[in-house]
Every structure is written in structure tokens, then in C-alpha cells.
Amino acid sequence: MVLTPHFRLFFSAVCAAAFIASAVGVPTLSQSDISLLQFALTLEHLENAFYTGALQKYSDNDFEAAGLSSEIRGRYEQILEHEREHENILEVVLGVDAVARCEYDFPYNSPLSFAALSGIFESVGTSAYIGASGLLSDKDVLTYGAAILGVEARQASWVNAAVLGRAPWNEGFDTPLSIDAAYSLTSTFISNCPSSNPPLQVQAFPPLTLSDASPSPGSSITVSYNDSNESCGLARYTAWFDGLQVEHSVLQEDGQTTVPPDLLGTAYVVVVCGLDTPSDKNMLSGFAVVQIPSDMD
I want to staple 225 with a disulfide (CB 3.0 to 4.6 A). Which of 46, 238, 242, 285 is the partner? Predict the structure, then answer.
């Protein structure tokens, strides 16, 4: 029997679901784990919709006309299959607590802008799974989350190196992001969700806009956000997340701030009140992604 691509996808998803059902036993999850997995499923729904829409819109010829080979489009089809498998397994583990897909608005208008956005999604997905890993209490589910994390990280490296011509990694560590941080980076692409979906256990922050999303190390950029927090009695800073390090730069009243001179690759920035470790208590904005050119680019 010849297996078509769609049948192979269905077969692999069913097998993976059966594996989790037997290996994990569809565990009785704590409410905390349910909330974390609901957010993970929200991200997988978003990625599934993102890749499905772009691959339906752009053909091999469209990719080649944009300077991207049909082989690259084929790899994106494989990534889509991965995201569907992740989506299916999370739905199995969550059962009746699984959240449904939302409606989305992705701002790509060409294969090249789609590819650039895919690099952001894969990097944010990797960072979100790292950040959530220490919060899961069920160790079997943690193992499965780690298996998803490994694939997300490989996809991010491939997109950055093979498609975007950047370094495949920053340094020795990827950057963990909190659920609130990851939500602030992805929620702008969600236009509407079913009323039946339970509210995600996240705190929303004003979006952060940068004058330059690919600044040079040590350069000056302008950041802007809806500054409605009047309770910050301290100086305001931009906090830059790179691997396991956080560096602060003074935020001037006109929105000017300096990119740390040793920052490279994919990093994240947020506006905070004071110099304490960034958290929900002192964050004044959501996060933004920056792509810092490196010597390997």
C-alpha cells in the first residue's frame, strides 16, 4: 500500500497519540499543569495556522521567485507536520480541557516575510517551552514537553541558518521566557478566540515597539509602549534577555535606550521599573524580539 503524505500525517499523529495515552497514561493533571498545557496548545494552534495558511498561499514557484528553493518549502511542510503532531498530542493529554483554535492575523505578504516571521515563532516557542519546563509537576508530561522543545529548537536553528542566513544559535544557552512574556510576543497575532475557551492564566502587558528590530550591538534605538503605569517611582530601564543573562540599559524620557554591546543573535527586550530581576511585578510593557547581527551572519 502506498502511503500518501496526508495519510502518513494522520497515521503518525494517531500513533503518537496512542503512545502518549499508554506511556503517560493520560494522567490526572493538576490545575497548574492544565493551565500550562493550555497555553502550550494555544501556541501550537497558532503555529499550525501560521504554516498552514502560508503553505496554502505560496507555491514552490512563489518560493523560488522570492529566492527561496522548493526544498526550503518542503522543509516547511515537514515543520507543519511536526506542529500538527504537537497539537494532537496536547489535545489528547488535556482531553476535555483542551482549548480550541482561535482566529489569527499574520502580517506576512511574501515568502520572505513569512520566513522571517517563522524564525520569530520558532525562537519564541523554544523559549516558552524552556520557561515552562520548571513549572510542570507531572514528570511524564515534562518528558513529553522536553521532546517537543528539542524539535522546536532544531527548527529554530534550521530557519535561522538555512533560510535566513543567520547564526544557528546564540551562545551556550537558549533564553527561557515566562508564560506572560511568551504571551505578550504572540497574542498580537490572535484576533479572536471561541467563547468556550477558558481564559488563559496570563497577565497582559502593553505591546512594545522598537525603532529597529535588528540593531547593532552598542547602538541607540527608540522604544515605545502605552505607558499607563503611574506607580513606578524608580528609574525605567530596558531589560535585555540573552541566554541566562539579563542586562539593563537606562531608558531615557524620549524613549532612547542603548543596546548592550555584547548582545548577539536572537534576544528579547522589555521595559521594567527599577533594576530588580524582571517579573510581572515590575514589567511595564510586553516583550519584543530583536535579531542582533553576529560575526557568523
Answer: 285
How far apart, in whole angstroms, are the C-alpha atoms of residue 292 and residue 216? 6
Torsion, CA 117, CA 34, CA 179, CA 214, rounded to 10:
-10
Question: Residues 28, 31, 35, CA angle at the centre, nearest 5°?
Answer: 110
- pLDDT of 102-158, one tens digit each? 999 999 999 999 999 999 999 999 999 999 999 999 998 999 899 999 999 999 999
Q: Are residues 184 and 41 in the same domain?
A: yes
Domain that holds residue 150: 5-192
Which distant-in-sequence residues (6+ apart) come within 8 Å of 19 by Cβ? none
Whats the size of the chain, residue-wise? 297
Least confident of 5-19, 106-120, 251-265: 5-19
Under a CB-based contact definition with an 8 Å cutoff, are residues 241 and 280 in contact?
Answer: no
Is the Cβ–Cβ distance between 283 and 205 less than 8 Å? yes
Those residues with Cβ within 8 angstroms of residue 117's Cβ, 6 or more apart along the chain or in another chain: 50, 106, 107, 108
Closest by CA position to 48, among listed 4, 7, 106, 94: 106
Whether the model clears a pTM of 0.85, i.e. scores above it, the answer is: yes
Is 272 part of any domain?
yes
CA distance 59 to 65: 10
Our count of domains for the chain comes to 2
- The rounded distance, in Å, linking the Cα atoms of 202 and 182 is 10
Task: Give me the CATH number covering residue 285.
Answer: 2.60.40
Vertex 24, ends 18 and 29: CA angle to 5°? 120
Where is average pLDDT lowest: 71-85, 88-102, 142-156, 166-180? Answer: 166-180
Q: Nearest to residue 289, comparing CAs of 214, 200, 191, 201?
A: 214
The two beta strands, 190-192 and 103-104, are antiparallel
